[in-house]
Amino acid sequence: MQTEAIRITRHGGPEVMEMVSQNAPDPAEGEVVIEQKAIGLNFIDIYFRTGLYKHPLPHGLGFEAAGRVAAVGSGVTHLKAGDRVAYAQSPLGAYAGARTMPAWQVVKLPRSVDFESAAAMMLKGLTVQYLFRQTYRLQGGETILFHAAAGGVGLIACQWARALGVRLIGTASSPEKAELAKRHGAWQVIDYSRDDIAKKVLELTDGRKVPVVYDGVGKSTWLASLDCLQPRGLMVSFGNASGPVEGVNLGILAAKGSLYLTRPSITDYTPTRQKLGAAAKDLFDLVSKGKIRMEIGQRFALRDAGKAHEALASRQTTGATVLLPE
């Protein structure tokens, strides 16, 4: 199947992304061909474009999308042609109109979830699932800190926390973004353009601080995050939106209260079809109950992926962004 796709042959800015015509091969054993209807945009796409995350060139971009199964290879039993499907992790190359990929990484969509919402939620929603239900399993009643609460992952986290009975303190870069996060379930939101994060967390928790910080921002929030943690608290560093955390002196974890630190990845939390399916069911159940609703703030044509990257990197976006094949 011929299709258009975004490829890069060198690392750099948005200008390195090129639209090319390529073939989505017939499915081999254990594979499916997906005709894609919507594609998710994530910061990790920028990391691979710039070379922060390494992969042999040339290559495509993107890890999540939603669409219909066009063809099924031998040995695939959980999917058939015509099924509405989505995926959150895959070989690089989701920025395409159609693609061939391993079937075990693909899940069926319930009727309650449309293509755009699925493409916007899969990687972000499953990220929140492993953060809240596996990395540090929230029980309800906790007060936590979650950075970038008005972003694509953050808005899902706000809603999921509310569903669990968890008080989520979010951070945001403007009053407008702070209000957006609160509308989605954040208990309190710190506008870090005006307030000191650690001091505000201390105030909001009556001096107790929080047992866990979820930080997808990275470099610019690293020290503030550590200062918000209770003794023996857990620092969950799961992203690098402001750049990677580098040169960490492990002694700082002792100095700030015998803190724990983890750098999780979705790949290690959904390594099999069964574990992926269980995590996706957890997400879809909350969506079906109306506990989580997707906020799609921006839509771009696939050929305008460069503009989408610029908007995301400059923090001009709210909620999720999807790319639409033409």
TrEMBL record:
What SUPFAM superfamilies has UniProt attached to this entry?
GroES-like, NAD(P)-binding Rossmann-fold domains
Q: Which domain of life is it from?
A: Bacteria
Q: By its UniProt entry, which Gene3D superfamilies does this protein fall under?
A: Medium-chain alcohol dehydrogenases, catalytic domain, NAD(P)-binding Rossmann-like Domain
Query: Which InterPro entries does the UniProt entry name for this protein?
Result: ADH-like_C, ADH-like_N, ER, GroES-like_sf, NAD(P)-bd_dom_sf, QOR-like, Quin_OxRdtase/zeta-crystal_CS
Q: Which PROSITE patterns match?
A: QOR_ZETA_CRYSTAL
GO CC, any one term: cytosol
What GO terms are given for molecular function? mRNA 3'-UTR AU-rich region binding; NADPH binding; quinone reductase (NADPH) activity; zinc ion binding
Enoyl reductase (ER) domain residues are 12-323
- CDD domains from the UniProt entry: QOR2 (cd05286)
Indicate whether Transmembrane appears among the record's keywords.
no
UniProt KW Cell membrane keyword: no
Q: Which UniProt keywords apply?
A: NADP, Oxidoreductase
Protein name, entry field: NADPH:quinone reductase-like Zn-dependent oxidoreductase
Write down the species: Pusillimonas noertemannii
Phylogenetic classification of the source organism: Bacteria, Pseudomonadati, Pseudomonadota, Betaproteobacteria, Burkholderiales
